[in-house]
Each structure stands twice: as C-alpha cells, then as structure tokens.
Specification:
five-stranded antiparallel beta sheet, 20% helix, 123 residues, 5 strands, 2 domains, alpha+beta
Length: 123
C-alpha cells in the first residue's frame, strides 16, 4: 500500500497454476501460471465520489480495464443494513435501486467487506 496526493493505493495480485498436457499423448509437460492484478486508488477526501480501479488480466495481449466505482458515505442506510445482517432488507434495497452491489464506503470497502468486518458477517 502506498499514497499519492489523491489517495491511498491498494494492490492485489493473484496467480493460478494449471498443468499443461501434450495434446496427443496427454502426458504432463509443465505447469503454466496465470497472473492478474488490481490496483485501486482510494481518495483521501471523505466526500469524493469514486475509487479508481485498474484491473490487469493475463492474456496473450493483456487488457487493462480502468473503472471509477461509486463511493457513498458510511452513514448511508445500506451500510447499516449490511452491518446488522438483515439480508432481506439489503435485497429490498437492491430491488428498489436504493443500493448497488458495487457501492463502496469512503475507505473503498465493498458491502461484502463491510459485512465481514461487522458483528453479523452474513453476506
């Protein structure tokens, strides 16, 4: 994790190893490893509107996806609902459009992250 004048930088990387076999004999040849990475810049200002996310996926010609994810205040009802473990209320909010699964708090945490850190991690 690092910092820029805009905000904190969070980096996630992962690898997936898969065996490669000869197409004719089906004999194992080697293990190939795919790598991927995500870089997020979470703004310092609590009233900022989005997180900048850069996804890098492994391919012959790597593709980079840059998105800006919506950030809302921790005081919004959806975070209280998620922390209380009331799944039925979350479903209702998602159905009505008053909440989105992509919503993030001012620290960049998703609804799933907030749920897991709460007293009732039920998502």
């Amino acid at each position: 994790m690092g910092e820029t004048p805009y905000g904190h930088i969070q980096v996630s990387t992962w690898a997936d190893e898969r065996p490669t076999k000869d197409a004719i004999t089906n004999v194992p040849l080697s293990n190939d490893t795919d790598f991927a990475a995500r870089v997020e810049i979470v703004p310092f200002l609590e009233n900022s509107k989005c997180i900048i996310t850069l996804d890098i996926t492994p391919q012959l010609h790597p593709k980079v996806h840059l998105t800006c994810e919506n950030m809302i205040s921790n005081s919004f009802e959806v975070f209280k609902v998620v922390q209380s473990g009331e799944i039925w209320r979350l479903n209702e909010m998602l159905y009505k459009g008053t909440a989105r699964l992509s919503d993030r708090d001012h620290m960049g945490r998703s609804l799933l992250n907030v749920s897991q850190l709460s007293e009732f991690p039920s998502l």
